[in-house]
Amino acid sequence: MRLYSFLILLLCSITAVSQDCNNTLSGTVTDFHDGSLMVEATLIVAGTEQAVQTDSNGKFTIQNLCNDTYHIQVSHPYCLTKGFTVKLSGDTTKNFLLEHHLEELNQIIIDGKAYSDKTNTMLQNNLSKEALERFGSGSLGDALNSLSGVSSLNTGNTVVKPLIHGLHSSRVVIINNGVRMEDQEWGAEHAPNVAINSIGNLSLIKGAGVLQYGGDAVGGVIVAEAAKVPIKDSLYGKTLQTLSTNGRGISLNTELTKSYLNGWHANIQGTMKRFGDFEAPNYILSNTGVFERNFTIDIGLKQFEYGIEGYYSFYKNEIGILRASHLGGARDLIRAISNPKPLIINDFTYQIKTPKQDLTHHLARVKGFKRWGGFGKLSLQYDFQRNNRLEFDIRRGDDRGDASLDLELDTHTLLLDLDTHLTKHVDLKTGIMGRYQSNFAPNTGIRRLIPNYDKYDLGIYTIAEYQLNDHWFLEAGVRFDHTQMDVYKYYRTSFWESRNYNQLFPEIVDEELNNQVLTSPELNFNNFSSTLGAKVVFNEEYKLFINYSLASRAPNPSELFSEGLHHSASRIELGDLRFGSEVGQKISLAFQKENALFGYSINPYIHSISDFILIEPTKVEQTIRGYFQVWEYRQTNAQLLGMDIDASYVFAANFRYNHQFSLVKGYDQTRDEPLISMPPVNTKNEIVYQNTAFNNIRLALQSEYSFRQNEYPDTNFEVFIPETGTSETVDVSTPPDAFHLLNFNSSIDFKVTNESTLTIGFTVTNLLNTSYRNYLNRLRYYADDLGRNFSINLKINY
Amino acid sequence: MQMIWVEIFQSILKSIINFLNKNKMKQIKFLSTVLLAGLLLTACSKDNDTPEQAHEEELITTLKVTLTPSGGGTAILMEYKDLDGEGSDTPVVSVSNNLAAGVTYDGVIEVSNETEDPAEDITEEVKEENLEHQFFYTSGGGLDVTTSYSDSDDDGNDLGIEFTLTAGAASSGTLTFTLRHEPTKPNTGLSDAGGETDIAATFDVTIE
Fold this sequence. Notes:
The structure holds two protein chains of two kinds.
Chain A: H1 2-15, E1 23-31, E2 42-45, E3 51-53, E4 59-65, E5 69-75, E6 82-87, E7 92-98, H2 101-105, E8 124-127, H3 129-133, H4 140-144, E9 150-155, E10 159-164, E11 172-176, E12 179-180, E13 201-205, E14 220-225, E15 234-244, E16 249-259, E17 264-275, E18 278-279, E19 284-285, E20 290-302, E21 306-320, H5 330-338, E22 356-372, E23 376-392, E24 405-421, E25 426-440, E26 452-467, E27 472-492, H6 493-498, H7 501-504, E28 509-512, E29 516-519, E30 522-537, E31 542-553, H8 557-561, E32 563-566, E33 571-574, E34 582-593, E35 598-623, E36 626-652, E37 655-668, E38 673-674, E39 682-691, E40 697-706, E41 717-721, E42 726-730, E43 739-751, E44 757-765, E45 789-797
Parallel strand pairs in A: 1-7, 11-14, 33-36
Antiparallel strand pairs in A: 1-4, 2-3, 2-5, 5-6, 8-13, 9-10, 11-12, 13-14, 15-16, 15-45, 16-17, 17-20, 18-19, 20-21, 21-22, 22-23, 23-24, 24-25, 25-26, 26-27, 27-29, 27-30, 28-29, 30-31, 31-34, 32-33, 34-35, 35-36, 36-37, 37-38, 37-39, 39-40, 40-43, 41-42, 43-44, 44-45
Chain B: H1 2-22, H2 24-44, E1 62-69, E2 76-81, E3 92-95, E4 104-113, E5 120-121, H3 122-128, E6 133-140, E7 145-149, E8 162-167, E9 171-181, E10 196-207
């Protein structure tokens, strides 16, 4: 391209013959993208070699030109040089548009951000590639847990589900490379099927204000993006290896990127992670190993005006579930709770036996965009996801070794988005989404937990952004979603009748079998969501974000249709066909001071959710296997209040102190009692020493303190003990004690060659080997959390 | 090693790019086919096939205990039946007769899944997997009975499908039959057996 324009310039220089040459060419040089004026852009007239620069208003004037055709080369430090042809007749005005390339797309950022903000009126938290690499052997949930306002709902230590401001599962939307993850996120023991090593940047928005991704993110949105590829000829890669003592595991990740100046680029990435049984301070957590494999391929052409990209990712994870957590009834639960150690402790092994989860997620995406100067950008995306979830319980007889639960969820999505600049100060984002999803559950010899269904979604949104002046930025958006579900479900006749469904929905019964009823419900939900916000920039340091968001979420299949025994929880779970959408209204404020020496942010919020869907124990059911607690989903009005505080202070050269504090309180307003599973107050304090002059050495000591959750509903229940002829209370609600953990993290860089760097990291988590149990770990009744872990990280960039 | 891998990757990439550059029309065709296929799949894949009914093969619905007096006489039949499994119906419990004081009974346990037709005999499965199962007998509430195992598993440890029950003095209380899956064997009773409860059926029993 450069050569081509150079040739043109050469050719043209011959034709420039002197004539009547008193004409002036004047105009401006502006950014193609946002219309901003380009200061100090250089214009060179081919042939005459006249050179001028634009002034502080982006204006230029070139004098003494003839009535002729000129070729002008326009260059700017942040842009690719571009040649223009101008035909002069008299004094002429001309505006040149430059592509703001390097700043926008390069990995090395001179000024500005590599990743655009997802929202402008809410505080957004980001985790960079470097921060993510520190969690390279963990999971996405572990990494997110390091941000204020985020905790995690765990099932053991390998199934880690993000909990944003006290909300989780279907209320947290995860966008993986532009694709909304449909990985059966409804279940509390279903961790996101996203490989942490495939992420270049992770953004967290603690609220529903990002309507382009959906209107149902009552809790928040997590956006994972691949690393940006520069538009230049380059080839680079990275290999990251982590060895850990706890779990005696290894994680190996390698990545290679190739890019060309013409915009073509390709990236491949693969990870293998294998851990055996993890260990609590005093014993082995039997059957908690994990074996993860994933790879991604990305090939695309990215020009400024258009681009096309194909992306495929494969994720497979086999996760062992603590053997001692598989129970048969309430009496086993009493035994497990009263025993300080897990009931089953075996020798260390890498083998993952039942109970376990075996997950596979395929994600394929094709995306194209076209940009028109002065109008905007139109993008079209199609994506396909297939999620296969196998859960293995301990089974008897011929079924031994077969999965108890087998669900295959296929999702197709088509997205059309348009970003336009209505005026210089008003941007408009609008789009339409169509989605088809089908769930197929083959017969596994156990009643289907989630029935077969087809689901259709149609969404449409508009968001307007208005830059009022240097201080005020306003944002408003609306979104409408329609959801239709066609379901086939077998109900137990006894349940069908006890819920009075036989009176309420006689029309959906297809067939009555001996003790089951086959039904085909068709459900429709219309959801409206909106957001309204402002950002006030007081000066370079102080900012205030104000946001109101209204989010509506249709109930998920689990909330509607669950009916049966959930082994990992040793309880019977019952959904409700009559549920409507839950609607959340959240007001969040964030006051931020950005300063390299001392910065902080304070983020209080209030969240009212009507028809909030929660699951709670209602009774005890007697079966031939003994007593089981019955948990039923119910809708109520809930209110959540909370505050996140972040602060960072450089107290001496190279020494930084980081502070985090998160508080959330949740109440069921209908029953006037606390909500179950709300994160306890926690605070993290860290001292970091970092010296870029000395091999970029970084040493960090972190203290993490989690208070005891003192507000919880009493969900204990009584069980008859035949030996004594009396009843005994099963204490499933009392939260465990507060705990304090110390973690150490360090890294140092070594230059191997000019182009490759070796980073060695050494990390210790739970330095004091503290025995503790976490209120938000579903397996806290059975075993302690993880003990001390030493790990060594080796990273080579080349 | 690393260099070879880089070179291979680079050459593959170059050939793909060359191919795509040369075949721009084909490329557009290919992409539109992919998109169309996706749309068609979306539009047409709704099938109206009703899903197969899941048979709960591992469900245990019924526990029957037959107590035959060693000296002969009418056998006592105890039955615990819960046809809807984890459903909301409460189990139906019956004991045909009271036990007689001082009498020794030979007991046999049968477990089955009566939602299958014909009913599936799960006692067979317990026998096949005898190393991983054991029955326990617990009396409570002042019932004066003593029990002992009459059978054993392949390792010679107690299994408990067959047992002997001796009724002591006249009394009444509860008698509970527990089936544990994967218990620690040998053990001294329920308290140190571990494993998971497959069956816990309690009967109200009177000795007269």
